[in-house]
Amino acid sequence: MVIKIEISLRRKLSLSYILVVLICVFLISFLSNFFLERQFNNYVIQTRKDKNKDIVSSLENHYNSEGKWNYKVVESIGIDALENGLIISVKDLSGKIIWDATIYNHGQCENLITHMSKNMTKRYPNWQGGYTENQYFITYNLNKIGVVDIGYYGPFYYDDNDLIFLNTLNNIFISVGIISLCLSLILGIIIAEGLSRSISRVMNTAENISKGNYKERSSEKSNIKEINRLIATINNLAHNLEEHEKLQKRLTADVSHELRTPLTTLQGHMEAIIDGVWEPTIERVQSCYEEILRIKRLVGDLEKLSKYESENLVLNKANFDISELIKNILMNFENEYVNKNIEVVFKSYKQVIFADRDKITQMIINLISNALKYTQSGGKVILTINDLKEYIEINVKDNGIGISKENLPYIFERFYRTEKSRNRETGGSGIGLTITKTIVSAHNGGITVESKLNEGTVFKISLPKYDN
Fold it and tell me: How far apart are CA 390 and CA 464, in angstroms?
């Protein structure tokens, strides 16, 4: 069994800040120690070499012109070298010892080597260094006059001041790390608190929305772009859910109304005939039959919509001339627009597309039927086809009664009709445009509508010319 541990955003952000600071301090300390210590080692080695040259130079400068050594000066140079961790021995060319640190103070020399060894072992537990000597010739007027052996603990060594410097540097890094850790913890808590507080409030709003309180909105303000987008998304979601709830209620009322009217008529007629109030005349039976057809058409539209919205919708695509298709459809509507005294304009030219001919036919019929239905006598309907390279655009424009700005976003919803009076001479079942949009979407196309009250409406449909 896997136990999933949940961590709050505030704690996770705080831990993240701490982790980042620890990593940064560790890397800075490690890299600084590594490079600084390497440079410091080079500096120590170079300083020791410079001291060796200074000792040789001092001995040469104090050799007098009479060819004699100034023993007091040589001793002073040797003592000064000893104090700096160097053990020297000066001899002439014959091998005679002029001055030797081990003879001068053997115990101090031993203690010096031992102390240096402890310093280096303390710093480097696996230190493999030891006592080392370098020999240099002493010259005077370009002639060799002797040699000096300079001994030291090598390959390099740290004196007490050097160790104090390095330890102080490490202590500074540790102090900086502790201070940075504390500051990051405080800063992380402050930032995480601000973030989690805003997100928690948005979450509370989302929870209320999930419980059906679609009027709930988040008024949270933030200077963080992502949180503002989250707030806007939650508010938009609540708005859309509220609108869909209204549409659902309206859908229920519309379906009930669509079915109740013919069923009530049928019930009244049948009861009157059964009770003997009415004679079952041809006219009355015909009236009942028409109501049955209305119910059948409604059910047929619902079945058609369900089929088109099905995930298993199969498109039988083929190449055909959509311009020729529109001309044929207009011929079928000729009697309707002539009787209504509506001018229909369509400038045709050959335009082949790859699509489902039957479904495109249904789409065009719905749009033309709508245009004729809402255009008054003496009006005009214009159909155009525009070639947009990979797409074609079909425009169906009329100068009819138009659609209000408030109704425009909902005209593709099921059973949505802009006329609240539900006049059957103009208003159909309210499914035609829903089917049209479904067909366009199935072809990976797009449909938009522009309309103004008492000025007219234009539907724009874009369809790919090729299979995509």
Answer: 6
